[in-house]
């Protein structure tokens, strides 16, 4: 039997107090909607329909052609939202998973269990539920004296007695597809919020004598529905624990897993060591044996085997084997460091390639440069790559020695084995094997200091 899926993502998310639609807020590096979509994909649905409305185009772009979309122009409630999918699904045989776009922690495995439970019990509707310590805000699962589910009641419609119920509706369900759309014809706006509630189909099925049931999640954390920024932070924390636990089981050392922030798509090899307050974002990849010390922040980069990154920031860059970086280095996009490079404190590099074993130990800016192997940059070297309008390139050969406080004015070529004198301003190409000196000669005025009032002789 075919599976179909409907993801509800049309709401504004008023309680988020945000310009961004709620389902586009990030949890561990991807939007809540993508988390939900990935879990849903575990079921391999024959069709996935996402209901969009508030800032529809923005939401559509996130899933692109992975999903079909239907518009819900006015957000009249979750039941109304599902009705929008009727044109795509109503005449199909099979079962349909309905899930809210704001429940990013529900796993694919739990959805599979829900579908299996639904099938083996031959239900018309099965609700994914959880036991909450504090159920406030969620729809509650009402059961009769035989423990059978009879209805779902929303927080705002719940009696005092019903508010005591701790079993909550996660907002995820499996339905017989055709019967779902039949039942939706009967829902009304007769409730505290004046909305068409999807949850009302449960009592409609029960009253018609259909078989309905609930599959309870083992872990309440999975069911978290994100309605405000407090819940968003909780979701982030739960996801962080999950991600970090996963990495630890795969052989990565964390000195403080509570305070290590790793996006969901980051790839880390065994025997990497991560100290506290390390942040790894986007599509970052860390190879085996690398050590990232406290405070290191890496975005969309590859860190090679055995590299040591000390308290530094790295963006969209590639760092080779056994490279050492930092403390306090900033590697900006398109930096490529080959094996054995050393980049020390207060060094900024952008759009540049440094060959094997090249060193820039202190206080240096390298921008738009191609640098050979075994080059040494003295402290305070600056590539002057920008004239206010255009950017220019610097090319440096192998075994070049750049003296401290050199100003290298691009476009510029410094050829193999050349040397620039400390304090030079270099604005013309330097041939191979030469020494370039571009600074004023020193003049000593003997005895002049004797005239100064600060001289010990004058006090
Ligand atoms: C809903 C459930 C509640 C459950 C909770 C779980 C209903 C009536 N209530 O409440 O029982 O405990 O989820 O998190 O279903 N949406 C639309 N169109 C709309 C309204 C909502 O697409 O017209 C989407 C929202 O974008 C969101 C999802 O549906 O992704 C859930 O809507 P939300 O308003 O957050 O429902 P809750 O009040 O949390
Ligand atoms: Ca919600």
TrEMBL record:
One Pfam family, short name? NTP_transferase
Detail which positions bind acetyl-CoA: 379, 385-386, 404, 422, 439
Report residues binding UDP-N-acetyl-alpha-D-glucosamine.
8-11, 22, 72, 77-78, 139, 154, 169, 227, 332, 350, 365, 376
Q: Which SUPFAM superfamilies match?
A: Nucleotide-diphospho-sugar transferases (SSF53448), Trimeric LpxA-like enzymes (SSF51161)
Localization, per the record, is:
Cytoplasm
Q: Specify which residues bind Mg(2+) according to the UniProt entry for this protein.
A: 102, 227
Q: Which UniProt keywords apply?
A: Acyltransferase, Cell shape, Cell wall biogenesis/degradation, Cytoplasm, Magnesium, Metal-binding, Multifunctional enzyme, Nucleotidyltransferase, Peptidoglycan synthesis, Repeat, Transferase
Q: Choose one Gene Ontology CC annotation of this protein and give it.
A: membrane
Q: Which residues form the Nucleotidyl transferase domain?
A: 5-214
Which pathway is recorded for this entry?
Answer: Nucleotide-sugar biosynthesis; UDP-N-acetyl-alpha-D-glucosamine biosynthesis; N-acetyl-alpha-D-glucosamine 1-phosphate from alpha-D-glucosamine 6-phosphate (route II): step 2/2; Bacterial outer membrane biogenesis; LPS lipid A biosynthesis; Nucleotide-sugar biosynthesis; UDP-N-acetyl-alpha-D-glucosamine biosynthesis; UDP-N-acetyl-alpha-D-glucosamine from N-acetyl-alpha-D-glucosamine 1-phosphate: step 1/1
- Explain the purpose of this protein: Catalyzes the last two sequential reactions in the de novo biosynthetic pathway for UDP-N-acetylglucosamine (UDP-GlcNAc). The C-terminal domain catalyzes the transfer of acetyl group from acetyl coenzyme A to glucosamine-1-phosphate (GlcN-1-P) to produce N-acetylglucosamine-1-phosphate (GlcNAc-1-P), which is converted into UDP-GlcNAc by the transfer of uridine 5-monophosphate (from uridine 5-triphosphate), a reaction catalyzed by the N-terminal domain.
Q: PANTHER family, alphabetically?
A: BIFUNCTIONAL PROTEIN GLMU, NUCLEOTIDYL TRANSFERASE
- Protein's recorded name: Bifunctional protein GlmU
| Organism in which the protein naturally occurs | Streptococcus macacae NCTC 11558
Species classification: Bacteria, Bacillati, Bacillota, Bacilli, Lactobacillales
């Amino acid at each position: 039997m075919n599976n179909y899926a409907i993801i509800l993502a049309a709401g504004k998310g008023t309680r988020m107090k945000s310009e961004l639609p709620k389902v586009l807020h990030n949890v561990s590096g991807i939007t809540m909607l993508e988390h939900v979509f990935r879990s849903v994909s575990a079921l391999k649905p024959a069709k996935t329909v996402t209901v969009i409305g508030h800032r529809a185009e923005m939401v559509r772009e996130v899933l692109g052609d992975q999903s079909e979309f239907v518009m819900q122009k006015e957000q009249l409630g979750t039941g109304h939202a599902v009705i929008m999918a009727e044109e795509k699904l109503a005449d199909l045989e099979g079962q349909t998973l309905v899930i809210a776009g704001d429940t990013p922690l529900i796993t694919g495995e739990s959805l599979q269990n829900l579908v299996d439970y639904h099938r083996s019990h031959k239900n018309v509707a099965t609700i994914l539920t959880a036991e909450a310590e504090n159920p406030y805000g969620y729809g509650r699962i009402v059961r009769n004296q035989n423990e059978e589910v009879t209805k779902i009641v929303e927080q705002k419609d719940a009696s005092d007695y019903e508010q005591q119920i701790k079993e909550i509706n996660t907002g995820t369900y499996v339905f017989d597809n055709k019967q779902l759309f039949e039942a939706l014809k009967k829902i009304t706006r007769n409730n505290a919020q004046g909305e068409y509630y999807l949850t009302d189909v449960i009592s409609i099925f029960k009253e018609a004598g259909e078989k309905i049931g609930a599959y309870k999640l083992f872990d309440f954390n999975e069911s978290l529905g994100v309605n405000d920024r407090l819940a968003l932070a909780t979701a982030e924390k739960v996801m962080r624990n999950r991600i970090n636990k996963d990495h630890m089981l795969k052989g990565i050392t964390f000195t403080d897993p509570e305070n290590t922030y790793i996006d969901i798509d980051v790839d880390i090899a065994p025997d990497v060591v991560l100290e506290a307050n390390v942040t790894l974002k986007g599509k970052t990849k860390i190879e085996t044996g690398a050590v990232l010390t406290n405070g290191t922040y890496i975005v969309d980069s590859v860190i090679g085997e055995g590299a040591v990154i000390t308290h530094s920031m790295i963006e969209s860059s590639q760092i080779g084997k056994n490279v050492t970086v930092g403390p306090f280095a900033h590697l900006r996009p398109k930096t490529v460091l080959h094996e054995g490079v050393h980049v020390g404190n207060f060094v900024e590099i952008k759009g540049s390639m440094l060959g094997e074993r090249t060193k820039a130990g202190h206080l240096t800016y390298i921008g738009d440069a191609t640098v050979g192997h075994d080059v040494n940059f003295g402290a305070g070297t600056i590539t002057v790559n920008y004239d206010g309008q255009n950017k220019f390139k610097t090319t440096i050969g192998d075994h070049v020695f750049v003296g401290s406080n050199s100003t290298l004015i691009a476009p510029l070529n410094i050829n193999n084995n050349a040397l620039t004198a400390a304090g030079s301003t270099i604005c013309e190409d330097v041939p191979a094997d030469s020494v370039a000196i571009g600074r004023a000669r020193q003049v000593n005025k003997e005895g002049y200091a004797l005239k100064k009032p600060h001289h010990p002789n004058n006090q």
